[in-house]
């Protein structure tokens, strides 16, 4: 018996396709990307993107792992700052500025009050402690590296603060003249010891000497600088006590022989001493001093560094002269210091001319 149900009919006898046998006789053509250009472009772009992504992943796998904060950490920034050549000089100047600010905070409330002399005396002790710390820093630096250039700023600040230590005596000289004289004499002696210690720290002895290796002495301070430096330091430490003692021994309202020496009478000889020190520097340069010799050494160990120290101390002594005259009641003007400024400019220009930029022995070596 023949089954009337078509071979491709479903369960209900309805054919699964409307035209049985048509799919077999006419197969459906496969879709080609060439028939649709937009599909071809998207396929090519997707393949290139996948290839680029794989290449980037392989390249990143070969690189060292980096985080977003690399180079921004406190430790990395601190190491970069320490490696900067001017870091030590900047830190020294900032510390000096902080010290001056703190000293002024102590001095300002006590100026003009005889009952608060102790507060003003404390500033001298603070400056002495700071100078000792600077000397220790330079010594440590030069032990680690001979003529360490990081010690230049500390040395210059130390030279200026040596005169500033004498300047602080002006503030107590009238109230405590004898203590001021003792402190001045002690300060002068300690400044000489500190200078010799600084010289020994910054200049190593020669390889051989009369008593064996490492014992040969080198002329640390040029002869042309010794007397000027002694005059500047001696005046800075001793003159405040002398003027304070004269003021203390003169009765208020005294006249005639009991009036004592006028403040200007004592101030002028000190001014002449400072000018004499500046003239000696000019004469030394005119007579052929060689501040830029010893080019084989670092700048901290050269004679030129000692000349820079002398210039700094001479400029600080000019400021000290003004403060000393002010505390003594003298009516001084900045134009009164024109001779010292002119001599400073002459010494500075002569040093600059002797450097001869481009030849060995200059600061830029």
What class do helices, strands and sheet pairing give? mainly alpha
Q: What gross morphology would you assign?
A: globular
- Number of helices in the DSSP assignment: 11
Helical content class: 55-70%
Mean pLDDT: 75
Q: Biggest β-sheet, characterized?
A: none
**Computed CA radius of gyration, to the nearest angstrom:** 42 Å
Unreliable stretches covering 5 or more consecutive residues = 18-25, 206-217, 358-365
Number of DSSP-assigned strands: 0
Strand content: under 5%
List the secondary-structure elements in sequence, H or E.
HHHHHHHHHHH
Distance between the termini: 120 Å
What keywords describe this structure?
single chain, 365 residues, mainly alpha, globular, disordered C terminus
Written overview of the protein:
By secondary structure, this protein is an all-alpha fold. The protein is built from eleven helices and no strands. It has helices at 22-25, 37-62, 74-83, 87-107, 117-144, 151-167, 177-202, 223-249, 263-286, 303-327, 338-355. α5 (117-144) runs antiparallel to α6, α6 runs antiparallel to α7 (177-202) and α10 packs antiparallel against α11 (338-355). The chain starts with 21 loop residues before the first helix and ends in a 10-residue tail after the last helix. Mean pLDDT is 75; it is low at 18-25, 206-217 and 358-365.
